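Notes from the pairing session

We agreed to fold both candidates in a single pass and log them together. This is the raw record for the first candidate, unedited. Please don't reformat it; downstream parsing expects exactly this layout.

Candidate A
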Amino acid sequence: MLRQALRWVALPLALLLALLAAPLSAVGPLRAAVVGRLARLTLTAAGVRLQITGRPTQAAALLVANHISWLDALALLAAMPSARLVAKREVRGWPLIGAIAGANGTIFLDRSRPRSLTASVADVARVLRSGTPVACFPEGTSWCGAAGGRFRPALFQSAVDAGVPVRPVTVRYRSAEAATTAAAFVGADTLWASVRRVLAAPDLCLQLTLGQALHPGEGASRRSLARIAQRQGVG
């Protein structure tokens, strides 16, 4: 109980620190160092142990991960802090988290306006061309279970347009060496309920596996890249 109580104090403090540090993490040479440390600090404050398999890189690439929890984004930033995130527009309205995401240059997608997707893909391609990696969750929503959802191909077009590799990333959660759904944030679940489960989990380990880069060849399509990335990253 004491450990859980400490997490309830530590997590808001870590998020508040991240918000106060947002001006340093938005631009400039300090961005990666600040973002990486704050992401790790926030995971630790929530009682989450991060385990990374594979070699992180800060080179331009489209990082595509399966999506289970709000913690996934923190893990990606802890491993590759120079990356810009892609998130659904609703995240902007989350307490503290939305403000931090906006200040850190998150690219927000408006899923209620499909016609805006073309502009969003162009925005991601522009960031990739600048040499900055971009991390996204192409399932379009979070899933609870090993199978996950289908990778939607739209954002893969940005990697094709920018001529950069796609790097699949697998996210898994374990507790006491067994798979767990404690961190899942799906369906009608609320962020508040998910946070409560995470803080109550006794030994939550977030396993992040960085796969081999997929280099789009001549004539590569977003659909073929999405299929291969899904098999490599989740299957």
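Candidate B (folded immediately after A)
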Amino acid sequence: MPVVDEELVRAALAAAEQHGKDVADVPLGAIAAAAGISRSTLIRRLGGSRARLDEAVQRAGVDLGGRPPVRERALEAAATLIARDGLGAVTLEAVAATADCAPTSLYSVFGNRDGLLATMFDRYVPIPDLEALAADPPERLEDTVHAVYAALAEAFAREPRVLPAIFGDLFTRPDGTAARMLKTNLPRMFASLGGLLSTLVHTGRLRPLPLPLLMQLMLGPMAGHMLLRPVLQDALGNTLPPVDEVARTFAEAFLRAAAPEAPA
């Protein structure tokens, strides 16, 4: 049985790092490229069996699928850096050092810093949840509004606390990274939540307020509470209502404020 040399093991690990995948998921062509040989040469050196390479990688002490891919490690590292030090701390070099990978791997997975931050934004803001809600809203208006508030509360409370850090950057640097990300994603926000609210207005279940104001009326109180909640929690302790109770209270207040005016 041919012995798989260390050069091919190193090539397999390098290819996995570069492509952000587990070793078992990296194609032989990518491993061959990392080794500087053709795919056919690689197969010949493996004796025609990919299993021998996988066994050699395991003998080297590497779990074929146990370590999270570069993409997941990088997103976790970036989230930790953002929550702890703010958006300004997120450079590809800092993320690579925290995620224990090479900066070139991040370029391969995300393209650049903006690509990494865009992926982070999509994971930690509630826009994907709002898009899913808009695609299949509950029949009752009250259930729809409560679902929006629940999604918003969950996004702000999600650890690491990336969304509060994004707002912190927005407040301190109106032309900074957070502002650019929010501007980029405003069309998605209007297409999801804006479309949902427009339908409710057209069917007479909400007052015909300007759409941006209606969205602010819905989101503003809950967002403000969640941004201040850590400070309020320290100051007020157990007298502060639980998040789900706060969400219900603000949802009910919105329904009263945005209810259609009764006929004179």
